[in-house]
Design brief:
Elements (H helix, E strand, L loop, with lengths): L1 H22 L2 H25 L7 E9 L4 E7 L4 H17 L8 H20 L3 H10 L1 H11 L4 H34 L6 H6 L7 H16 L8 H8 L2 H26 L1 H4 L2 H23 L4 H22 L2 H32 L15 H14 L6 H16 L1 H27 L15 H19 L2 H18 L24
Antiparallel strand pairs: 1-2
Length: about 525
């Protein structure tokens, strides 16, 4: 029973709750929104326990929507999308709780938009009909535009419009590509359908058109990642967005781009995606993102913008891992996607919390505050160390797997990418020293108050995940491995060794092992 309705419930419940929040008195909005998001998370938790790591789609539902056009409501998850759904439902209640102190105007609208955004983000990860996928892709764009444009900083309108134009332009080209695939599959089979499986099985014999279609998908997903040089919307959007907007942008929205490459661009156009030209371009752009993102972050005076540019570097590791197409690198890329959402989300929360006290994001405005706010300083230190991939934290596991796996495919590029870890340590540890460990020279900082119980409640779940994944990632790797293995086998048949007979997924060579 649960398997049949769970994904539909995850999509419908936030929409219903959003309407209710919008109609309620403003003083009740944050309480109802938090309760609704916690219920959403509770609905999603059994996915972890009931998911069977077999590489196939699960919890599927298929219902005719606009039958005359071959449009169905088809949803499902596998080991690639499962954790992105769980990450979404996990971060949303924290984002709502973290917004209580600074969202004091138009509260109903703000929390309603966050709930609607939840539906759009989950919809992207579970859609198995390309028309439904496109609807959800566009649906999440609208609430994020208003979240930045209404509740953002002084330059919020510029950032919101830039975010919208960049994303919408790529989306329109992707829509054209989806329609071409639909017509091609229909002409070849006589069945006109937007079903993922139908279009995938007939995405052949496209000839030179495949390059144009891949380019359209590539542009839409590369903007969302964002891949250099299409990243320029990201720092503006991050800096101007309210804290919850920055957390959702970094934690989930950027992952839609890398998820799109894994789910659509690579499987639909493998000959193009794995051609020497495209591989060279992707690897070079990934390396530029890793190194350039880190170097630009190093010179940022604004702590929030520093974190924004660090996202460009982290997502560069993801793209390198995806295109390396080894079992370790793909699992590592998926882990980096999850870990980036947790660690960078925590960093944005911490910057937002200290901004509420000091009303400045400039690194130079702080110094020595560890003596005044020791709990804040301790948590900021742990989260920063996880972001630079210190062993024992979540960041290390993902980047380590990416580097090991990618070295087999791109040894030189991987060696260069390793320098990105050093650059990350340079910019984050320097910022950490300047913010909390240097001498306390500014009198305004002497009056800062430490974290409140509400703020601790926001950060503790993130800290638990940082340490849990860093120490014992096996449960996550075991669930994602069969789907990663199936993807690689689909793109490069015969390159992945089957797990030993009788060994469960994630055991033996399954825990990242590959021939």
């Amino acid at each position: 029973m649960y398997a049949r309705w769970v994904l539909t419930a995850l999509l419908a419940w936030p929409l219903i709750a959003g309407v209710v929040v919008l109609l309620l008195p403003a003083r009740l909005a944050k309480y109802v929104a938090l309760a609704a998001s916690v219920i959403e998370f509770a609905i999603s938790v059994p996915l972890w326990w009931t998911f069977v790591p077999d590489g196939g789609m699960q919890f599927t539902m298929d219902r005719a929507w606009i039958a005359a056009w071959g449009i169905h409501y088809t949803v499902g998850v596998d080991g690639i999308s499962l954790f992105l759904v769980l990450l979404t439902t996990f971060l949303m209640p924290l984002s709502i709780l973290g917004s209580w102190s600074y969202i004091t105007k138009r509260e109903g609208g703000f929390y309603a938009l966050l709930l609607v955004l939840t539906t759009g983000m989950i919809g992207v990860f579970v859609s198995l009909d390309l028309f439904l996928f496109y609807v959800m892709w566009e649906l999440m764009l609208i609430p994020m535009y208003f979240i930045i444009g209404v509740w953002g900083g002084d330059n919020r309108l510029y950032a919101a419009i830039k975010f919208f134009i960049y994303t919408f332009l790529g989306s329109l080209l992707m829509l054209v590509a989806i329609i071409v695939l639909y017509v091609h599959a229909g002409n070849a089979t006589g069945v006109y359908s937007f079903a993922y499986a139908h279009l995938l099985s007939n995405a052949k014999d496209l000839g030179p058109t495949a390059w144009w279609l891949f380019g359209a998908f590539f542009l839409a997903f590369a903007i969302k990642v964002p891949l250099f040089p299409l990243h320029t919307w990201l720092p503006d959007a991050h800096v101007e967005a309210p804290t919850a907007g920055s957390v959702i942008l970094a934690g989930i929205l950027l992952k839609m781009g890398t998820y799109g490459f894994l789910r659509f661009a690579l499987p639909f156009f493998p000959a193009v995606a794995l051609s020497q030209t495209v591989q060279l371009v992707i690897v070079i752009l990934s390396l530029i993102g890793i190194i350039y993102g880190g170097l630009v972050a190093m010179v940022q005076p604004d702590f929030k913008k520093l974190i924004a540019y660090s996202s460009v570097a982290h997502l560069g590791f993801v793209m390198l891992g995806i295109w390396a197409l080894t079992l370790q690198s793909v699992q590592g890329a998926l882990l980096v996607m999850i870990n980036h959402g947790i660690s960078t989300g925590a960093l944005f929360f911490l910057v937002g919390m200290i901004y509420e006290r000091r009303h400045s994001r400039l690194i130079a405005a702080y110094g020595g505050i560890a003596r005044v706010v020791p709990l804040f300083a301790a948590i900021l230190t742990v989260v920063s160390l996880s972001s630079i991939a210190l062993p024992g934290t979540n960041g290390f596991v993902g980047e380590f797997l990416v580097l090991i796996g990618a070295f087999r495919t791109y040894p030189l590029a991987t060696a260069l990418a390793t320098s990105g870890v050093i650059v990350a340590a340079a910019y984050l540890l320097t910022a950490l020293q300047r913010v909390i460990y240097n001498p306390l020279t500014q009198h305004e900082n002497e009056k800062l108050t430490d974290l409140t119980p509400r703020e601790v409640a926001v950060l503790v779940p993130l800290l638990v995940c940082i340490l849990w994944i860093g120490i014992y990632p096996k449960p996550i790797l075991r669930r994602m491995e069969p789907s990663a293995r199936a993807l690689i086998e689909q793109l490069k048949p015969g390159t992945v060794q089957a797990p030993p007979a009788g060994a469960g997924a994630g055991e033996g060579e399954g825990e990242g092992g590959q021939q």
